[in-house]
Amino acid sequence: MNKKNIIVLGCGLVGGPMAADLSKDNDFNVTVADINGEALKKLSSNHNLNTIIADLSNPDNVKKLVKDFDFAVNAVPGFMGFKTLKAIIEAETDVVDIAFFPENLFNLDELAKEKGVTVISDMGVAPGMSNLLTGYANHLLDKTEKVVIYVGGLPKIREWPYEYKAVFSPVDVIEEYTRPARIVENGKEVIKTALSEPELLNFEGMGTLEAFNSDGLRSLIKTIDAPDMIEKTLRYPGHIELMKVLRETGFFNQEEIEVNGVKIKPIDFTAKLLFPKWKLKEGEEDITIMKIIVEGEQGGKRKRYTYDLLDSFDKDTKVHSMARTTGYSATVALRMIAKGLYTRKGVSAPEFIGNCPECVKFMLEGLKQRGVVYKETIE
Fold first, then answer.
1. Hey, do 4-125+321-372 and 129-312 end up sharing a CATH topology, with the first three levels equal?
2. How far apart are CA 281 and CA 276, in angstroms?
3. Where are the domains of the chain?
């Protein structure tokens, strides 16, 4: 059997572990591309893979880069994710995408179908497995009535003042505090302010966490027919108030202000101060927690499907939990495509995979093999 050639675009906190995981598969030749030569050198010194130093912000570079590969993984930052994915599709390369860009992923569906390309977008933990398991429960139910998702990535050790570390792109973290949250209430899409409607909830193994509205439902709003759906982000208690103070004072604003004759965006100043404090250091332990609740009717009876995830930093591999739960979801999905289990052309949201029980089983087993375990409860 000929080995499949795979390219991973991005060698960051999640891209690197994904490339490492794929490189362990004897069926794959893996290449990882990034502009950061030091990150590539460090990765290649520990894993059997090839590296390319490339400016991935240029779609033409991306298109030329991926055209000779069987599969691509899009792991660039969200602000450049959409145009990168478009370039991959134009190169007619099947792709799993975890860029989590703000644009509508289905805007590329027609192009992907025209090119005969299989795309699974938003294939991380949330969005990603949250969508897939919601889609699976929706597939099993005769009628879905309610979807509630709680998810958060947190440092194991709480340090004042923020008790938070950025387990993915810090720029994307701030987006969670500023972008309006879209939820579904009584069958209608409703816009809520980010950080709104706080709840205190107790989670086994974690204790009390606070939850707030965030814009995490994404494609589920359009693809799942349920009258009530919401996703909330989880943090240690007190974090919401700190972020509200920064937001309402203007520290997250994009409009330039003048300071001593120099024009500066407040968000850039804030990032310069916050990100060193939020940086998850090598070896620093993190936790990923998620609860998915899907309720409805099945066979004329009330039914509730609950999926729980509590994952920690892997001390053996030194891979952070958010990288594991996000990245391995994508690498297992890529294996699913490579094995021919999922063949749908066009852009798929992860919930589409939920319609295929065989694919769901493959995903859950593949994650379990990597120590990422989802506990199912049916009531």
1. no
2. 10
3. 4-125+321-372, 129-312
Written as six digits, the tokens of 169 are: 């792109």
Q: Which two tokens stand for residue 239?
A: 């974090």
The CATH homologous superfamily of the domain defined by 4-125+321-372: NAD(P)-binding Rossmann-like Domain (3.40.50.720)
pLDDT of residue 281: 77
Q: Give the pLDDT of residue 16.
A: 93
Of 125, 154, 149, 124, which is closest to residue 138 (Cα–Cα)? 149
Per-residue model confidence (pLDDT) at position 2: 84
CA-to-CA distance for 149 and 289, rounded, in angstroms? 11
Which CATH number is 129-312 given? 3.30.360.10
Please answer whether residues 128 and 350 qualify as being in contact, where contact means their C-beta atoms are separated by less than 8 angstroms.
Answer: yes
The maximal CA–CA distance of the chain, rounded, in angstroms, is 69
pLDDT value for 343: 95
The dihedral region occupied by 220, where left means phi > 0, alpha psi between -120 and 50, and beta the remainder, is alpha
pLDDT number for residue 13: 84
Question: Which residues of the chain fall short of a pLDDT of 50?
Answer: none
The DSSP code sequence of 285-312 is -EEEEEEEEEEEEETTEEEEEEEEEEEE
Predicted confidence at residue 78, as pLDDT, reads 86
Residue type, 175: E
Is 58 strand, coil or helix? coil
- Strand 4-9 vs strand 71-74: parallel, antiparallel, or unpaired? parallel
Angle between helices 129-140 and 357-369 (to 10 degrees): 140
Q: How many residues make up the chain in this entry? A: 379
| 308 and 290 Cβ atoms separated by less than 8 Å | yes
Q: Let me know: does 265 contact 253? Beta carbons within 8 Å.
A: yes
Tokens of 272: 């310069």
Q: Tell me whether strands 286-298 and 257-259 are parallel, antiparallel or unpaired.
A: unpaired
Q: Considering only CA atoms, which of 328, 324, 331, 293 is closest in space to residue 310? A: 324
325 vs 10: CA distance, rounded Å: 17
**What per-residue confidence (pLDDT) applies to 144?**
97
